[in-house]
Amino acid sequence: MQFRLSTLLWFFVVVACALVAFGPWGLLLLAFLLFHMPLFLSRRRRIGVIVFWGALGLLFTTGYHSHREAALSSSCRNNLKQIGIALHNYHDAHGCFPPACVVDAKDRPLYSWRVLLLPYLGEQSLYSQLHLDEPWDSPHNQGIVAQYPVPNLFQCVETRLTENCARHVTHYVAVTGPGTAWPGKESTRIEDFRDGTSKTVMVVEIKGSDIHWMEPRDMTLEEALSETAGATRVPSSYHSTGRVYFWLRSYPFVGQMMLADGSVTYAWDPVSAANLRTLLTIDGNDSVDLGQVDRRDRSHGRLDWSRVIGYPLFFLSLIVLVGRGSVNPPAPPDADNAA
């Protein structure tokens, strides 16, 4: 009975280590290994099989990276960088950033700032065919736009693939309102950013967008600051919320933001409404420590010690369990005794 109880104890140790190292998948791995144990009669062979799978798993996890997620995130980050360059080129040409929306003589909105950026994003052909004295949804303008796909820089490829979103929506929006970089039909200049361009957000990435890229509509400051379950609506994305590497901790990736100096920062944790308001205003006379918002280096470099310790313990405890529960096959009877 003592032997059986100790063996049962080791079994629970193995299960616990499997859960720590691999989560629920560890139970499947354990079942897979134990299922194959009866195929090997000798204890030495069973231990050899465990060592083989342990070494193979170590080789796989050491070389495993989420390349697809990293590539998609990098693509969306590059979109924001290109938009930032275009905004500054526009500023160099006109002495100011574009207004959030262009209006006609009667103050009726015509189209968004994204239309004004087209010549600076390599879309001069599309821009030259639009009637800029007509609304974005006029028959002529919509007829022209129907012949062109939405400019790639206005959509995040990962969000597009995840949402299967409408063809012409944009995932990059301005946050508009008094005191922001986008007060409305008025333009702002670099000199207006009293908090500094490196500490003020101009464009944010969102998911679930229903905004046509030409439409003179973005997101108001009140909409951006509205909280659900303690988190603001922006920035948000469908970027990975899991692990970029097996041995590192997962991270709650929230979204990307383009600062007024053209740089792009990540929000790894939900940004509080108070901090987001400070980041979105140009003359708040205070600033948020972006090191607390963009924690990219620390998040990527933090080892998951539960896996680092749990992985070897799982295979070592499994070897002990198999060694305790295995019985070498009986030796064949001696030929002389048998006679």
Number of structurally distinct domains: 2
Mean pLDDT: 83
Query: What share of residues is helical?
Result: 40-55%
Beta strand %: 5-15%
Q: Radius of gyration from the CA trace?
A: 29 Å
Give the neighbour order of strands across the main sheet.
5-3-4-8-9
Order of helices and strands: HHHHEEHHHHEEEHEEEEHHHHH
**Class computed from helices, strands and strand pairing:** alpha+beta
Strand segment tally: 9
Features:
339 residues; alpha+beta; 5-stranded mixed sheet; 14 helices
Task: Characterise the protein shown here.
It is built from 14 helices and 9 strands. With 339 residues, the protein is of the alpha+beta class. The chain folds into 2 domains: 2-65 and 306-328, no CATH class; 70-294, no CATH class. Strand 1 and strand 2 form a beta hairpin. The chain is elongated, with a radius of gyration of 29 Å.
Structure summary:
By secondary structure, the protein is α+β, with helices and mostly antiparallel strands.
Give the helices and strands, then pairings.
Blueprint: H1 2-22, H2 25-36, H3 43-63, H4 67-94, E1 101-103, E2 109-112, H5 113-116, H6 124-129, H7 139-145, H8 157-163, E3 172-176, E4 201-205, E5 219-220, H9 221-225, E6 227-228, E7 231-232, E8 255-259, E9 264-267, H10 273-280, H11 290-293, H12 296-300, H13 305-325, H14 335-338
Parallel strand pairs: 3-5
Antiparallel strand pairs: 1-2, 3-4, 4-8, 6-7, 8-9
